[in-house]
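Aim 2 progress update. The chain analyzed this quarter is reproduced below.
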Amino acid sequence: MGIRMFLLSFATCSVVAATISWLSFRRYIIAAFGQLKTRMIDAYVRKAMRTITTKPEGRCEIGEKMVDSSSFRYFRNAPACLGEMYEKGRRFGTDDFLVYYTGSINRRITFGDALDQATTIKNNLQHNYGMNVGDHIAILCSNIPEFPLSFMAITSLGAVAVTLNAFWDSTLLLYGLTNSESSMVIVDSKRLATLMRSEVQLQDLVKTGLQIVVITSNDAELSSLPSWLKAVDFKQLLLTSVNEALKVVIPCRHPAVLMYTSGTTSRPKGVLLSHESFIQAAYSYVLFWDLILMLKGSPANRTCHLISSPLFHTAPLASSFLLAFEANVKLVLLPRWSTQNAVNACKDEKVTTMGLMPTMLSDLVACPEFAKAKDSLVITNIGTGKSNICLSLLLCDLI
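Predicted structure tokens:
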């Protein structure tokens, strides 16, 4: 009996030991295979990256150049200035470029129309309002089509686009206009109302030469403004000009954009960005685009970005706005963030790419309409930021 129990115990221990050994071996095999798979994928991606970045005369060919005694790697064949970048979109002609999505009456602007309108604005800015190379022109509005059109016109002219934070109060806005030495501000009605809360200071700026162009929804808005503003309706900039803007060669390191920090902890600080810095940043996204095309092939649907971040930030300007001119990307602008509006836009415009703050992403996933529409959506890329929210669970809900 004792020997039998001993043998049974020994056999049980052997089975347990064998099971543990097998499980350990299995985990080792899985881990090793996972590492091998990761290395194989890494090698495949690296090879694709080398192919793209070393292709002679390829749009993402990388070279080196000296700037102020320092060597930099750069995209050798990228446009020298933003005006050249915009013209690359001319080949997309009648394709939608901007869609201002309200859910009812949506505004659509094609690549061809956007380029033509930006050129008209540029001509009027120079010949009718005295703006020239190097002048600072502020843009102060929400994500409406007038923002990118103004941005294109200003930077094509060789002037500097000052992208002010549309959420600032009147004190910070007036500080931004003063500190940036803006000669003109293109502003929507809501932000002009904010500026008017500091009427005396605004009046002083107008007296010293600040020109105000107002984006209005109707004529009554303009007629209700005080005469001392000398405000001009934005629609005047869209009237055909008899004179074309003077053609100038804009050096790649010429200032293009003046952006400000948020001012959360101290006075907002201005950061001056050149044409080259903006374009080179944008081409890192062009490189990513070409890499995805090489690895996955052409997408089933045309690429469409839902723009949820304010256009006065660098992220949407570089990663979506400028990318559009190289990759024929449709940009969908929302009047304001709304999960219902976002879901409808994703369905109606076949949105493929979104960049959302984690709280927005959480709201979207929790939206009942999103759950119902999920199977019909064509979203393939989602970008977000760091958060305490468990992003992996949210992304699982999106699949």
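The radius of gyration is 27 Å. The domain at 111-275 is CATH 3.40.50.980 (Rossmann fold). These observations will guide the mutagenesis experiments scheduled for the next reporting period.
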